[in-house]
Amino acid sequence: MTTKNRYDAIIIGSGPNGLAAAIAIAQTGRSVLVFEAKETIGGGCRSAELTLPGFVHDLCSAIHPAALASTFFRTLPLERYGLEWVQPDIPLAHPFDDGHAAQLDRSLDLTGESLGEDAAAYKRLMGPLVENWEMIMAAFHGPLRPRSILSHPFKLAQFGLPALLSVSGLVRSQFKGREARALLAGISAHPMLPLDTPSTAAAGLMLGLLAHAVGWPLPRGGSQRLMDALAAHLRALGGEIVTGVEVKTLEALPAAGVVLCDITPRQLLRIAGSRLSGLYKRQLQHFRYGMGVFKLDLALAGPVPWKAEACRHAGTIHVGGTFQEIARSERLIWRGEHVEQPFVLVAQQSLFDPTRAPQGKQTLWAYCHVPNGSDVDMSERIEAQIERFAPGFRDLILARHGMNARDMEHYNANYIGGDINGGVQDLAQTFTRPTISPSPYSTPDKGLYICSSSTPPGGGVHGMCGYYAAQAALQHLEASGS
After folding, report:
1. CB 3.0 to 4.6 Å from 229: which of 66, 83, 216, 252, for a disulfide?
2. DSSP code for 289
3. CA 330 to each of CA 73, 92, 176, 431: distance values in angstroms, whole numbers, following the listed order
């Protein structure tokens, strides 16, 4: 229950961005109230026993390089509230049919050793980015800010220029061998776009440099622990959280100086349409949502018997074979097809965090991309892909839990059609999400803001959408004397 008749700020949604916005405002001493429709906080960052008792699975987000590198989360004392980061031995491995694997290691040198003839080319590409990673995050991990980019134009151009390329164009220009090409294809496929789409290289470069700079860590005990730490810090600042209350209209809210919505454009239209101008509403109506995902969680009798030794020491495995296979899979899914051999993202958290499963047992987290709104069960195809690179894997399965794209939206209303990125994140809809505006977080209603992954910098667990939305809202509160 709420304790005040009026708040300085109300936030709708308790995902990473909603809580980041709430904390940023509460840090100024203002009163903050968060509403969450579900009984537990977290948005796309929850954990639960989905398969069998004692097996803790992350419902969506699992591996968190962007959280550890977040310029906002890094300022918060989250370890004080029990958050502990676990670093796998190897951040990422990418297996091939012959039992070899490319690996993305914390060390540039060790990564290069797995890339054969492209070792030197990889180090030339990634070395300067890793050296300047904090500058790159500050400049590009938020709204478009020309002044920030122009402050170090030459150093930032080392990221910005290749980031504009498609990953297909980048690997053709930089690499000759299958290992480096496949490695970049996998990490660049996270935004769920065809690999010949301009700017798809940006995700690969960003995730690659973060692997070297901060690793690809996981929270001990489950992704929920990150959200619980954020919530505890918010409450320590005086903020309030109410769960189990779905906000269906803004008129139902208590009085507030500002309202920030950790929701997507479609939902904003539903709850606030009457307060938005015709032009802004039309822009929101044209916002594009992308591919969905099919999520599969498994309880296993033991570790996955990967043929490639590197995969047995990696937190994340990209299962998809060669660059050509991954590119074909993503292209067909974008066209609305369900492929027989999808690109599968796998995480094996319990190898490095024994709190996730009973002694001797393991959890496995996996998903593949599917057409938006799909209700097709991809379990068999995902398992077949893993079995391809780990013969005997299926014999270890004790229980499974699957969610199709529609189930994903039911689990989290922000996942429209199963799109976990809050909307297509191509060149046309990265810095212009959800609309073309100098302040993409603001709406025509001066007290209403959007702070979800449908705003820059987009998908991922980093809180920066919420942080920047909070800065815009704070400007309004200060101008109005609140």
Report:
1. 83
2. P
3. 32, 20, 21, 23
Find the length of the chain: 482
d(CA 394, CA 11): 44
Q: How far is Cα 225 from Cα 72, in angstroms, rounded to an integer?
A: 17
Token pair, residue 263, equals 């929701």
Please tell me the distance from the alpha carbon of residue 196 to that of residue 184, in angstroms, as a whole number.
13
Q: Give the CA distances from residue 45 to residues 144, 186, 217, 218, in Å, rounded to whole numbers and listed in that order.
A: 26, 22, 14, 11
Q: Count CB neighbours of 111 within 10 A.
A: 26
Tokens 């094996």 sit on residue: 348
The predicted structure's pLDDT at residue 405: 98
pLDDT at 432: 87
pLDDT, position 358: 98
Tokens of 343: 């690109």
Report pLDDT for 2: 65
| 3-state secondary structure (DSSP) of residue 426 | coil
DSSP state of 470: H
Residue 51: strand pairing partners? none
Three-class DSSP category at 255: strand
pLDDT at 141: 86
pLDDT at position 212 = 97
| 478 Rama sector, left if φ>0, alpha if ψ -120 to 50, beta otherwise | alpha
Tokens of 452: 């979800």
The ranges of the chain with pLDDT < 70 are: 1-3, 147-150
